[in-house]
Write a structure and sequence with these properties.
The chain is of the alpha+beta class. The chain contains 16 helices and 20 strands. 23% of the residues lie in helices and 15% in strands.
């Protein structure tokens, strides 16, 4: 028979010719189809690309399908190579020939292997994990991944904001805490920070604040710092930034570890339940190990000793089995017409709601348990967007959030080279995709069908839209009214009350650190007028804060221009006063061959059994051998170790100066305490212990190790001298629950 162009029959013979030109594999119907069906199969004369991985693996379903394959060196096209050390030349001393295709490919790819770094959050670290929902949010949202017991794979990226990719980790800065949930309903991105408020209230000012805090254009300095004139010029003039700034001057801006860092969604979001009811919420990540920070001197030492400190800490913890965990919680608020709670405007991203007014309700647990196999492919290429939503979670009219919804796609286009960044493996959703988006740079999909438009009959009507009952995302029908105007609500004009709330909620030692941070940062500024203007902002926050910073700057403290408000302190804002698990803490054990190595062996087992990580610090690498037949493996040496790496230090003996204990070999060897008259102990050990003592860390010793504590001048609260390694560790572990021994030193605030 002969088929016509719409697939009908023109005769009764089965061996007739097929008339070419049919647009699809099935004939279209007269009316638009209304019964959902999947994409039509290809026509008989069509064949999709064979499913081979980007690296030529013929089993693309394998877990390592995208890894390099084969034992031999090849070109990008799979051509085996016998030499990649020499260009193709006209004789051994002749010119390189234009036909050298391997040279051209190799150099071309090298010349283009860098992509633009993120404008902000350029320096990042990422890891894989799982989010397990408790089901406690099911009453306020129909989001499937928040159902009881649902486990969702995630990828989390931590980052600093200001510095470039090559900057240091432990800078005074805001941190990003972005989580991509690969849910069965599509990807949901919670793009959070470690500070619950932001510098600005409206996204139109985002270029201004970033231009102000980035290195100054004339000299491209300082890198990854806010201690310069342009930043303080902006925030002292633009006082809505003052609440965020006081958080940045607190210990929150220099976390001890990503594992001890809180995360906040910053904005108010809207949850939608199964019946369409709505609730306003703020998202919180609570670290299971508690919130803990570096001291400022520690941070400065860290950036010199190990600029990759936070990155290394995260990956070492995962490798050691001390998997970092955070509990996700929500603060909930009635979705009222004015969108305020207890007088706080929920659409103002420079405001928070104290947890004493709206408790954080736990809804699930995040566990990170795997590092990336390739940093560029995963950490650098992952693309977050606050508009990546799922049914049951919607946005609000927060003007900063609204601008972010517009901005994030733009930045991915430039950074990742085109509109198909969602097809990069780390960005791919774990849900079926039928988007009718076609072509463009880096298109990796092999779309089928001939009708990427709606409505159609050529592809059987596919893809079909669905209703809310079948999992559609439906925006909340929030009424919109008002004249077009460039303005802000009157409630946005309060720039100081919550900065004062934060100050009043701090413990004395935290206040001391805030004063010193302002004094350090403003002391780095050149322009006197900028310092004076910022002091005026501090006067509007608190007179004691202003007076102490002014004293450090050698300037008079101005009178406030607004009366500082009274506020009940919020204990939840303080990092001090709680007790936390000791899992993952790093314990430094100082020893040499003459130390109590039996105790060291027992101590290492006990530290490991307690979920902590023991690192032996010795005069040299390799092994410490006391002749028992059980040598102790060394992880750090007096040359390579620095106190900032350890949460506590235990001393097993009194190591005599090693052969390299001289300033010419190791400058630290010249840093012994002034009162030390004889180098009976290696001076680098004395320095390590003295630094840890100065940074309010727990210290312990037994046996001959007590002499080291004495020589370092370490005595008083948090310094433990035990009769055995086990007894010493028991007391140290109790001290570690509070992170530091803050009572060791008096404060002046």
């Amino acid at each position: 028979m002969v088929k016509d162009v719409v697939g009908g029959s023109a005769g009764g013979s089965d061996d007739a010719l097929t008339i070419p030109g049919a647009p699809g594999s099935r004939p279209p119907t007269l009316t638009e189809p209304d019964k959902p069906q999947g994409p039509l199969p290809p026509k008989a004369d069509q064949r999709p690309v064979r499913p081979v991985s980007p690296t030529g693996n013929l089993d693309p379903s394998a877990a390592d399908a995208r890894a390099q394959t084969g034992a031999h060196l090849t070109t990008a096209q799979g051509l085996r190579l016998g030499d990649t050390d020499h260009s193709l030349k006209a004789g051994p001393r002749g010119p390189v020939l234009l036909q050298d295709h391997h040279l051209r490919e190799k150099i071309m790819h090298f010349d283009h292997e860098r992509i633009p770094e993120r404008v902000v959050h350029a320096r990042g670290t990422g890891a894989h994990g799982t989010f397990r929902s408790y089901g406690t949010a099911a009453s306020v949202t129909r989001a499937g991944f928040l159902g009881k017991g649902v486990e969702t794979p995630v990828f989390v990226r931590f980052s600093t904001v200001v510095g470039s990719r090559g900057s240091a980790d432990a800078v005074r800065d805001t941190r990003g805490f972005a989580t991509k949930f690969y849910t069965t309903e599509g990807n949901f991105d919670l793009v959070a920070n470690n500070i619950p408020v932001f510098f600005i209230q409206d996204a139109i000012k985002f270029p201004d604040v970033i231009h102000a805090v980035k290195p100054q254009p004339a000299r491209e300095i300082p890198q990854a710092q806010s201690a310069h004139d342009t930043f303080w010029d902006f925030v002292s003039l633009h006082t809505e930034a003052q609440h965020h700034v006081i958080w940045q001057m607190s210990d929150r801006a220099v976390p001890r570890s990503y594992r001890t860092m809180e995360g906040f969604g910053v904005h108010t979001f809207r949850l939608v339940d199964a019946d369409g009811g709505t609730t306003l919420v703020k998202f919180h990540w609570k670290p299971v190990q508690g919130v803990h920070s570096l001291m400022w001197e520690e941070a400065q030492l860290v950036n010199g000793a190990d600029p990759d400190f936070h990155r290394r800490d995260l990956y070492d913890a995962i490798e050691a089995g001390a998997h970092p965990q955070w509990e996700l919680g929500i603060q909930t608020f009635p979705d009222t017409e004015d969108q305020t709670f207890e007088g706080i405007d929920l659409l103002d991203p420079t405001k928070l709601v104290p947890e004493e007014l709206a408790p954080v309700q736990p809804i699930g647990m995040l566990t990170l348990d795997a590092a990336p196999t390739n940093f560029f492919a995963q950490v650098e290429q992952i693309a977050f967007h606050p508009g990546h939503l799922v049914p049951g979670i919607d946005v609000t009219n927060d003007p900063l959030l609204q601008g972010r919804l517009f901005s994030y796609l733009d930045t991915q286009l430039t950074r990742l080279g085109g509109p198909n960044f969602s097809q990069i493996p780390v960005n791919r959703p774990h849900a079926p995709v039928n988007d009718m988006l076609r072509d463009g740079f880096h298109q990796q999909a092999d779309h089928v069908g001939n009708a990427p438009y709606k409505p159609n009959t050529v592809d059987g009507g596919c893809p079909f839209a669905v209703g809310a009952g079948d999992g559609a995302f439906v925006e909340v029908p929030e009424p919109v009214a008002g004249a077009k105007e460039r303005s802000a609500p009157a409630s946005f004009a309060d720039h100081f009350s919550q900065a004062r709330l934060f100050w009043l909620s701090m413990s004395p030692v935290e206040k001391e650190h805030i004063v010193r941070a302002y004094t350090f940062e403003l002391g780095k500024c050149y322009e006197q007028a900028i310092k004076e203007r910022q002091l005026l902002a501090l006067a509007n926050i608190d007179p004691v804060l202003c007076q102490q910073v002014a004293q450090g700057l050698g300037l008079p403290a101005p009178e406030p221009t607004v009366v500082p408000t009274e506020a009940a302190p919020s204990p939840a804002l303080s990092q001090v006063g709680g007790t936390w698990p000791v899992d993952g803490r790093i314990i430094g054990i100082v020893a040499d061959a003459a130390s109590d190595l039996t105790g060291v062996r027992e101590l290492r087992q006990a530290v490991h059994a307690a979920g902590m990580v023991p690192l032996v610090i010795a005069p040299h690498g390799g092994m410490l051998d006391d002749g028992s037949g059980e040598p102790v493996t060394v992880q750090r040496t007096f040359l390579t170790a620095r106190s900032v790496e350890f949460d506590a230090v235990l001393v097993a003996g009194a190591p005599v100066p090693a052969p390299d204990a001289a300033p010419a070999s190791d400058a630290k060897a010249g840093a012994a305490q002034p009162h030390v008259t004889a180098a009976a102990v290696d001076p680098r050990v004395t320095l390590l212990v003295a630094e840890a003592f100065r940074h309010s860390k727990a210290l312990g010793a037994w046996g001959d190790g007590e002499a080291v504590l004495r020589q370092a001048g370490a005595a008083g609260p948090g310094v433990v001298v035990g009769t055995s390694a086990g007894e010493t560790l028991e007391q140290i572990a109790t001290l570690l629950g509070a992170h530091r021994v803050w009572e060791r030193f008096p404060v002046t605030v």
